[in-house]
Amino acid sequence: MNAVIIGVAILFFLLFLYLLKQSKQPTGLVGIWMMKIWNQVYFPMVEWAISQLEQQNIKNILDVGIGNGQSTLYLKQYFPNSKVIGIDISKTAITQAKKWNIADLNFELKDVGQTTYSAESFDLITAFQTHFHWPDLSRAFFELRRILRRDGLILLACEWSKLTYFQPELKKEEEFAAFLNNKGLKLVSSQRKNQWILYKIVKKPEGVI
């Protein structure tokens, strides 16, 4: 009996690890299925986060970790005169996202830690329910700072529970602010709604400590 319980526990643990891997980098039919579920669960968070933006004259937008591109499509609809790019490290995700065939809406297979975009390319950079999965958080934020324009904004939103699980050392606002400060970025504000948390981040001027 104990052997059966242990065997079931091992199977559940392996399933958990597999689904966790899929959440980081979706592949195949399981990845496609999971991305559809994410849209249903997390899209209200995307709508809420974007509604908190005050700036309307945004020309170039980068959406990071896009899944099948639903959030990127919404950004294009919300800012119809903008050029919007969505990136992901998953080939499956990008293939699904490219089904949205709209002018000035593009999807590219890229690593957030090394995007290869020119410096100061984007007015707005968004990341929804994804940054806690980035393998090298420091490298990623250094790269986002590089490609963010001087007066640009990084909009970061996710479930609070994901931060407490994946990044407990950064769940306090002062700890996250200190982390960003060392990357040449400044945490302007954070706000909560139910289980969600939203961060607004800007670029510190060169030479400012």
- The percentage helix is 40-55%
CATH architecture: 3-Layer(aba) Sandwich
CATH class placement: Alpha Beta
- The number of helices is 7
Q: From the 3D structure, determine the CATH topology.
A: Rossmann fold
Helix and strand pattern? HHEHEHEEHEHHEE
- Which shape, going by the Cα principal axes? globular
Task: Explain what you see.
This protein is α/β, with parallel strands linked by helices and 209 residues long. The chain has a single domain (26-203), classed as Vaccinia Virus protein VP39 (Rossmann fold), CATH 3.40.50.150. It contains seven helices and seven strands; from the N terminus they run ααβαβαββαβααββ. Helix 2 (28-51) packs parallel to helix 3. The protein starts with a helix and ends in a 6-residue tail after the last strand.
Key structural traits:
7 strands; Rossmann fold; single chain; alpha/beta; globular
Secondary structure layout plus pairing:
Layout: H1 2-24, H2 28-51, E1 60-64, H3 70-78, E2 83-88, H4 91-97, E3 105-109, E4 122-128, H5 137-147, E5 148-159, H6 160-166, H7 173-181, E6 185-193, E7 196-203
Parallel strand pairs: 1-2, 1-4, 2-3, 4-5
Antiparallel strand pairs: 5-7, 6-7
Helix pairs in contact: 2-3
Brief summary of the model shown:
The protein has 209 residues and is an alpha/beta fold.
